[in-house]
Records
---
Amino acid sequence: MKNIDIVKKGDWIFTCVMTPLQFSHFETRNPNDYDQEYLNSLDSEAYSNFLNDSFETTDGSSHSFKNCGCKVISEAYAKWFIQNNIHLMFDKYENYDNKWDLYTYDVRQASMAAGLPFEGL
């Protein structure tokens, strides 16, 4: 588990089935598992991003940043998000059709009330 004291700029907050403290380390993708024509079309920066945009979770599964709503956030926002268990707020909207809208609105309002710009989910 990651300690709140070492959350830093560039850490990831997850808006999928993962929670912010649920990953163990970043992993490198294996290019042999992907379409070579697609890989050849990437410039060097895009290729580097492709190789480094997944992580292995504590349960051993793999997760791709590009396949969910993951974002890079500031240190202050990361600390606020985790210390206030913002990722757990989503559960209270379970029975609503517009749960993402409600969750986003409440997180935006809470971050602004804390004096932080809303950086997403």
---
Amino acid sequence: MGKIPHEQAGVWVEALEQTLLENGITIPTGSDFESVWLFVKHREEARAGGTVDQMEDTRADHRKAIGLIHLARLVYRAKSRGCLQPFVNHLRLLPKWRFAQNDRAFFDEGSNKVFELLFGLVCSEAGDGVVMDDPVRSKGKNPDVLVTIDNRRWGFACKVLSGYSGQTVYERLQEGIDQIEKASEAEVGCVVFNLKNVMDYTKRTKGGSNGLLC
């Protein structure tokens, strides 16, 4: 997305908060979601007031903030197009999960489901008729995302890798293929990998945190 002006980030985050409230979704006190939420808001206020501590190392917080802002932007755009309904079940669980897609976790089912949400939102910009597999009662027999693109019904299986092992990649790939092939509705499909657990984010932020949000 490049550099994100704090003013625009604030608009997206506030809109996400309003969207959650409209669907009866509250942000639990002390949750990972709340901590990142507050960081974004406080950072915006500090920037507006000229009180940002340039010496403070906030790289870890900024990585999570970028994840929240990216999600908020996609939700904002989907709602603006009237395409939000397929994602409500995922949104209901969002405040309870570790949601950052640029933060490592050995295994975190919640973060995995947020990846499905993010990819589904992106698919809604490329096609129509999006159907999301149930995030709670999923039995692994359907693609995580179904969408019609160029008059063809696509099925996408979203997989999060936990390591570099070729065996691990093969197993996740086979699982995804099985999901897609079992879906009678899908004409064509693709397995999508999330590499968040195999990337070293510290190497990508050596220049400091100020380049993430301007």
---
Amino acid sequence: MLQQLIGQIPAASAKRDLAPWQWERAQALLLEHLDSGITVTALAAACALSRSDFTRKFKVTTGHSPQAWMRLLRVEKAKQLMRESAFALAEIGLQCGFCDQAHFCRIFHRIEGVTPLSWQRQLFQEASHSTWRHAG
């Protein structure tokens, strides 16, 4: 899922966008620091840009601010963990870099339109319904 989100980014086509090497570097750093976070200043420095230039070019490239993009990546990682692990939601939130479960739930709901628990229940219902259809 993270790769799908990242794959939606078009190649840089103008000087207003991040250069391909800058996007690759920013992407790698964001994924590397998904659980701990990274400052926009550090991302900008790694891309040899000022903070303001980096933020502007990042938004042109992705359609999101670096902070919003990090939240999207964290929610995608949380969804992956909910699908593939038995961790409690509080633990998933912490593993994805959210400071506590309330923050995780608030951001998840803002992005997905449902709470993590509701999303997880829908996932289990779909899985059990799919299993039931294939068993018959």
---
Amino acid sequence: MALNPQHFNTQNSRCKHTALSNSVLHKIANGPSLQDFVSSDPPKDWSSYEGKLRREKGESDRLRLPPWLKTNIPTGTNYSRIKDQLRKLNLHTVCEEARCPNIGECWGGGEHGTATATIMVTPILC
């Protein structure tokens, strides 16, 4: 099927911006900041860590993750249910492909119980 140029809009289209209401501007100005999401109590000195952080030249053994990079293995009924459904439907998620350490929070539903997963439209390549 040949493409017909009449089907294309050749004029520049622009987003139509609308002004934000005062209440929205107030919420943005008084909402959470980066500091609300960053923990304020991480240790400043990791000199007490006895594990290796770098391999020596020529070493091929895998290093163990330091404690500050470890996460809990995701579990739970919501997590298992979503994973089973995705496998049955042969679907893959961005979370899995990116090996997101927070996958258990999204798939498990967190404190509100709403489990979410971001499905990839293309095949299993991210």
